[in-house]
């Protein structure tokens, strides 16, 4: 999809015919219902709600009443069709509107739809055309209400929606965390004119100010001064101009700075001041630049004054004047910094262009209660944020001639913060922001590229009986490779680039081509093997002295975590040497970690010498097989024996070889059948299995299943264990919790190990007691 | 004087030679000391302090120890010479600066003067010329400090200095009373750019904001758009234009008002918005008008935001963009009314153009403690506030080619409020304001005209022994008659 869009972009953007296959743009149209359209001055944004049928891997326990045969798998895996809800947003130039409407009409099967919600200035103009073409009644919605509704929606549902723009910084875009409480904020919408809106709650907003000096003024005056009629061209002219040849600067009047008033010499005293008295001709570039500065500074000052008057610190900018244009984002940012002396930051939105369409859609879908669900951006179906400096490749970003897409999946469950987060508003899940760290970015992009062949092979192997597995896998390869290439050039395309977003994008792309769970068979096999050793491991632990046992448990937990197909170093070994066993892993760890005795000390210190047993431990588990069965369960068993309740949190959906909630249900039943401690705990509700709400190998503690959050509070959880590289190192390494926490992982990546000052198979064992102290090994 | 200025005004204002007799402009130059000069982008303002010798009538009681004779008068009357202090301010175009300096040099008798205080952007540019011509050391003073000092001075000393402008009202200018306490206030100086200054006391002020969209922007963009290079002509173009052909109005987008947001259909949604997508040619007049609205509204909104942020209700506007131009005073007033919903009034100053020169002068005269005296405007030596709508007689008010004067007499005694006044800030001494009452104005102007002959006769009769009494009385008659005629046309 993005591939096609790319091709389109390199064509002449004035070309009015659609060169993209519309069926790759208007996806899932056959099931579409609830249309909304936002027609602006030059761009149309269409929104619809559709259902997507896709394959999911299901596990089902075999009937155990029948006699078990050695070698029979523990559970059955089946691939089923599932239908999920998805929101589609498409943006295209108004010139394509008729062609697009025709296409929609031809493909729209659903006949329930009677109405299309419309907003934007153009809704009025195109009303008849839409009604004639689509035979839907156009139902107009208030433009500002839609805009605000859409803004609230993206701020709440899309992590890294808002960003700060810094032209000369290492990373041009610095993404902001989703604040749990998004209100109040100021929205400065710079369309033809400027509207300044104070938003206080979901339904309460007020236009507190505005200005007639906006995008239309830049465009209109620019056209008169330079005879250049296109907005994008005017911006390009401006980006090449020197404003100081047209503007009168402070130093032009006073010969230097006007220090007693704190005015620097380079400050613009009078926009276009030089053209008042000079007779010379000014270049188009210089005039366009001067105009841009004049308008941006003016809006910046107004924004800052209104923010101060209303005591607001979050100020978002949108409208076509801003919409991803680095030039205007830079001048607005500069102006806000200047006027607020850095106290207020100018914030921009990745999906700003869609706000009106999203809002109109939400108005129409109110009976479906879209706000009660959580939504997630689908990286596979969404074009990313467009590029950088216009000098680099102006045609590539001439968005006027292209289609741009955003798709959002409705998540089955509502997501909330982990209630134990110390400061939800400052919580950042990701440890390294790859947009800001070029070296790390290069490494990880290459790493994911290198691993791609293996993933493709695995995907094909996972579906020996399904049709076109090889073709689909190849398509997946192309798509993910293209995403990686895009990210290499535009690291900020989907918000902050992180190891997590790279992993998640891969999962989204796999799902896109119906590889819902490529590791299902591997997991199944590993689980089967590990289960056979469970009792043996437990028995050998029972024989140890109390102190030795604590040590062995921690060692087992870490050794188990070595078995990770997500890590290339391990998958290579597992591929070539299936005998690489649990004992071998322990030996490896022992060799690399001479300080495990210290680990033992702190381990004991933590759990034993500091007061009574914990009330409840929340354990975020990682891999299936040896990890969960021989590493985690014995540890859990020990906790249960001490009288600590345990909540095991596992993924809702598959990711790599991570154990999913449904798999864990089956595993736990089987272990319970062998082990009375587990059995009793289950029966007495001391051991609870919950799903995390995530389908990622990483963990975002600000987007967890609501049921999990409820359990955590009810059980008075006072210990959180986070296991694995994805959950404890790539994310949450720096997460601060209100209770004791233990983050442990084996570093199965030599580059990362070196970065953290260790070697491959080094152990991270990070124990923290609330806000007071922490120990890292 | 005003007569001469009038004549000058009707000439081609581009004429660079001085056609006015300079000795009627630079009055009392022979006794002048303490010079100050404020050189702006196009106008020079000169200030000096001088002494004036004039006749006063004195009365003296006879010696009552001597025997009184029936029929002897109660006291004796004599006419004596007295010397009083007077401030002179003269404004002229920068093009005349050399001629003026030459004239001053030739007539400057007082040799005590060693220094001339200078301010304004041009002080820098003309420094050498002034030092060469006048052989005075140019002593530069901070522009903003001078401006504020001058502003404080006129607000305190000139009754009816500040006024509200109302284009369509009976009286275009509504003068404000001098508040006993002039602080705090906001001064919006619209020169090339805009400075927004909060003034809290005589010595405390702060530039709290500013904007690069000011008079220079109107002039500069206007010149580029209309090929009209003169500021006054641009204003005239603007006053004839229709902004709605260039601006995108709310109704152009939404077909009417956007009621839920409280935006009327005629509100400008986007300045120059129509020129973005329309290919037609726009008239110079319409573009100039759109530009004027854009800039005035922007400044109005900024002014109102700063006033609210700093809780200030008195907002004075000055700078060359404003300086007596009805067009800009109207758009600024409109904008302030719009943004503050009438809570804040835009105030303008009669002598706004002199503020810098007054301030620079005061800086130089600090040892004379000018602020300890009260000063009074001398109506005979001052040109009045210039006219009205530019349509009436554009050339008449093309002040660019003229000289303009303000003279202030130092009063011997400091004047204050009667402490028993109930509300000094709302006290208005005059019972009828003739500017607002056309009938009464007509009656009283005629009345004074009719009485003039009698006054002249009386004046001549009062000085049977003094020389040229008849000639002087005739000159008085001419001058007063001319003032009355001026007031008939420009009651302000």
Automatic annotation (TrEMBL), chain A:
One of its GO terms (cellular component) is nucleus. It comes from the Eukaryota. Residues 454-758 form the Damage-control phosphatase ARMT1-like metal-binding domain. GO terms for molecular function: ATP binding; hydrolase activity; metal ion binding; pantothenate kinase activity. Its cofactor is Ni(2+); Mn(2+). Belongs to the type II pantothenate kinase family. Homodimer. Interacts with PKM. This is 4'-phosphopantetheine phosphatase. It comes from Scleropages formosus. The gene is PANK4.
Automatic annotation (TrEMBL), chain B:
It comes from the Eukaryota. GO terms for molecular function: ATP binding; hydrolase activity; metal ion binding; pantothenate kinase activity. Gene3D superfamilies: 3.30.420.40, 3.30.420.510, AF1104-like. GO terms for cellular component: cytosol; nucleus. CDD domains: ASKHA_NBD_PanK-II_Pank4. SUPFAM superfamilies: Actin-like ATPase domain, AF1104-like. One of its GO terms (biological process) is coenzyme A biosynthetic process. The keyword Iron-sulfur does not apply. It holds the Pfam family Fumble. Keywords: ATP-binding, Coenzyme A biosynthesis, Hydrolase, Manganese, Metal-binding, Nickel, Nucleotide-binding. Its cofactor is Mn(2+). InterPro entries: ARMT-1-like_metal-bd_sf (IPR036075), At2g17340_3_helix_bundle (IPR035073), ATPase_NBD (IPR043129), Type_II_PanK (IPR004567). The keyword Nuclease does not apply. PANTHER family: 4'-PHOSPHOPANTETHEINE PHOSPHATASE, PANTOTHENATE KINASE. This is Pantothenate kinase 4 (inactive). The lineage of its organism: Eukaryota, Metazoa, Chordata, Craniata, Vertebrata.
């Amino acid at each position: 999809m993005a591939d096609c869009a790319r091709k389109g972009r390199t064509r002449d953007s004035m070309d009015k015919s659609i060169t993209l296959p519309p069926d790759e743009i208007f996806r899932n149209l056959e099931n579409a219902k609830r249309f909304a359209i936002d027609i602006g001055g030059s761009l149309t944004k269409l929104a619809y709600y559709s259902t997507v049928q896709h394959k999911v891997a299901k596990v089902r326990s075999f009937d155990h009443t029948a006699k078990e045969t050695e070698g029979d798998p523990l559970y059955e895996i089946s691939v089923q069709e599932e239908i999920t809800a998805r929101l589609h947003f498409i943006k295209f130039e108004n010139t394509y509107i008729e062609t697009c409407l025709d296409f929609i009409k031809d493909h729209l099967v659903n006949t329930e739809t009677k109405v299309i919600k419309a907003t934007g200035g153009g809704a009025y103009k195109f009303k008849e055309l839409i009604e004639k073409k689509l035979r839907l009644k156009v139902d107009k919605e208030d433009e500002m209400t839609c805009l605000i509704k859409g803004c609230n929606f993206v701020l709440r549902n899309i992590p890294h929606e808002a960003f700060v723009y810094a032209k000369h910084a290492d990373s041009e875009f610095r993404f902001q965390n989703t604040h749990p409480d998004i209100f109040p904020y100021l929205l400065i919408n710079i369309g033809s004119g400027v509207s300044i809106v104070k938003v206080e709650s979901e339904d309460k907003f007020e236009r507190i100010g505005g200005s007639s000096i906006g995008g239309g003024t830049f465009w209109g005056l620019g056209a008169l001064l330079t005879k250049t009629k296109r907005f994008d061209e005017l911006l390009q002219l401006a980006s090449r101009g020197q404003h100081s040849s047209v503007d009168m600067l402070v130093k032009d009047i006073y010969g230097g700075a006007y220090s007693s008033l704190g005015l620097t010499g380079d400050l613009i005293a009078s926009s276009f001041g030089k053209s008042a008295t000079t007779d010379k001709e000014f270049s188009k570039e210089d005039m366009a630049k001067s105009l841009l500065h004049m308008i941006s500074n003016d809006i910046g000052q107004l924004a800052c004054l209104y923010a101060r008057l209303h005591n607001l610190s979050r100020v978002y900018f949108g409208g076509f004047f801003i919409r991803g244009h680095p030039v205007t984002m830079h001048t607005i940012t500069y102006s806000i910094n200047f006027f607020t002396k850095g106290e207020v930051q100018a914030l921009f939105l990745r999906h700003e262009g869609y706000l009106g369409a999203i809002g109109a859609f939400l108005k129409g879908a109110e009976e479906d209660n879209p706000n009660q669900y959580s939504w997630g951006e689908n990286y596979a179906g969404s074009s990313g944020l467009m590029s950088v400096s216009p000098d680099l490749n102006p045609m590539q970003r001439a968005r006027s001639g292209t289609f741009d897409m955003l798709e959002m999946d409705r998540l089955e469950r509502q997501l909330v913060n982990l209630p134990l987060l110390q400061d939800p508003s400052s919580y950042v899940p990701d440890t390294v922001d790859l947009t800001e760290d070029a070296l790390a970015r290069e490494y990880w992009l290459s790493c994911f590229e290198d691993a791609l062949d293996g993933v493709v092979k695995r995907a094909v192997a996972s579906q020996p009986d399904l049709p076109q597995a090889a073709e689909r896998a190849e398509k997946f390869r192309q798509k993910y490779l293209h995403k990686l290439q895009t990210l290499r050039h535009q690291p900020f395309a989907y918000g902050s680039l992180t190891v997590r977003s790279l992993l998640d994008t891969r999962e989204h792309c796999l799902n896109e081509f119906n590889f819902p769970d490529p590791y299902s068979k591997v997991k199944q096999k590993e689980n089967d093997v590990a289960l056979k050793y469970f009792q043996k491991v437990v028995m050998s632990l029972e024989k140890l002295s109390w102190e030795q046992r604590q040590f062995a448990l921690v060692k087992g937990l870490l050794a188990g975590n070595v078995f990770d197909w997500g890590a290339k170093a391990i998958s290579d070994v597992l591929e070539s040497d299936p005998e690489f066993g649990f004992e071998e892993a322990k030996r490896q760890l022992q060799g690399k970690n001479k300080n495990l005795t210290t680990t033992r000390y702190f381990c004991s210190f933590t759990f034993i010498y500091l007061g009574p047993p914990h009330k409840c431990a929340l354990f975020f588990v990682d891999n299936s097989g040896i990890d969960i069965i021989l590493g985690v369960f014995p540890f859990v068993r020990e906790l249960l024996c001490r009288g600590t309740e345990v909540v095991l949190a596992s993924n809702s959906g598959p990711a790599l070889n991570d154990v999913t909630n449904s798999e864990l249900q089956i595993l736990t039943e089987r272990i319970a059948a062998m082990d009375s401690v587990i059995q009793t705990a289950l029966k007495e509700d001391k051991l609870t299995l919950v799903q995390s709400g995530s389908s990622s190998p990483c963990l975002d503690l600000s987007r967890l299943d609501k049921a999990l959050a409820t359990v955590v509070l009810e059980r008075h959880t006072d210990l959180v264990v986070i296991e694995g590289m994805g959950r404890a190192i790539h994310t949450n390494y720096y997460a601060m919790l209100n209770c004791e926490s233990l983050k442990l992982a084996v570093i199965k990546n030599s580059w990362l190990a070196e970065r953290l000052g260790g070697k491959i198979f080094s152990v991270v064992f990070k124990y923290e007691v609330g806000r007071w102290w922490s120990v890292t090994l | 004087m005003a007569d001469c200025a009038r004549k000058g005004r009707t000439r081609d204002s581009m004429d660079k030679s001085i056609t006015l007799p300079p000795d009627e402009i630079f009055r009392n130059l022979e006794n002048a000391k303490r010079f100050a000069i404020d050189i702006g982008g196009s106008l020079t303002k000169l200030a000096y302090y001088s002494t004036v010798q004039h006749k006063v009538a004195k009365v003296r009681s006879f010696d009552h120890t001597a025997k009184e004779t029936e029929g002897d008068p109660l006291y004796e009357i004599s006419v004596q010479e007295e010397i009083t202090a007077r401030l002179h301010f003269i404004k002229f175009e920068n093009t005349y600066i050399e001629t003026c300096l030459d004239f001053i040099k030739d007539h400057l008798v007082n040799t005590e003067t060693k220094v001339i205080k200078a301010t304004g952007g041009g002080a820098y540019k003309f420094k050498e010329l002034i030092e060469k011509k006048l052989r005075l050391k140019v002593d530069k003073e901070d522009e903003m400090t001078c401006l504020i000092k001058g502003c404080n001075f006129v607000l305190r000393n000139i009754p009816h200095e500040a006024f509200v402008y109302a284009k369509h009202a009976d009286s275009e200018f509504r003068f404000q009373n001098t508040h006993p306490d002039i602080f705090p206030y906001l001064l919006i100086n619209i020169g090339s750019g805009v400075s927004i200054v909060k003034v809290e006391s005589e010595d405390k002020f702060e530039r709290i904001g500013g904007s690069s969209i000011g008079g220079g922007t109107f002039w500069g963009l206007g010149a580029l758009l209309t090929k009209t290079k003169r500021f006054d002509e641009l204003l005239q173009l603007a006053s004839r234009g229709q902004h709605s052909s260039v601006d995108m109005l709310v109704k152009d987008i939404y077909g009417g008002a956007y009621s839920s947001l409280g935006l009327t259909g005629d509100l400008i949604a986007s300045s120059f918005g129509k020129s973005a997508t329309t290919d037609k040619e726009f008239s110079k007049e319409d573009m100039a008008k759109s530009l004027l609205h854009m800039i005035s509204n922007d400044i109005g909104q900024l002014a109102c935001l700063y006033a609210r942020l700093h809780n200030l209700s008195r907002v004075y506007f000055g700078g060359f963009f404003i300086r007596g131009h009805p067009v800009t005073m109207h758009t600024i007033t409109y904008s302030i009314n719009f943004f503050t919903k009438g809570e804040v009034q835009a105030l303008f100053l009669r002598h706004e153009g002199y503020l810098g020169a007054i301030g620079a002068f005061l800086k130089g005269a600090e040892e004379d403690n000018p602020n300890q005296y009260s000063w009074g405007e001398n109506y005979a030596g001052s040109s009045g506030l210039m006219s009205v709508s530019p349509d009436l007689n554009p050339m008449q008010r093309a002040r660019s080619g003229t000289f303009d004067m303000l003279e202030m007499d130092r009063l011997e005694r400091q004047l204050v409020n009667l402490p028993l006044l109930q509300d000094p800030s709302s006290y208005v001494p005059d019972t009828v304001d003739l500017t607002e009452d056309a009938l009464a104005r007509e009656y009283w102007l005629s009345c004074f005209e009719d009485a003039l002959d009698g006054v002249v006769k009386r004046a001549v009769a009062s000085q049977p022994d003094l020389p040229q009494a008849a000639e002087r009385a005739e000159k008085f008659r001419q001058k007063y008659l001319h003032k009355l005629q001026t007031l008939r046309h420009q009651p302000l």
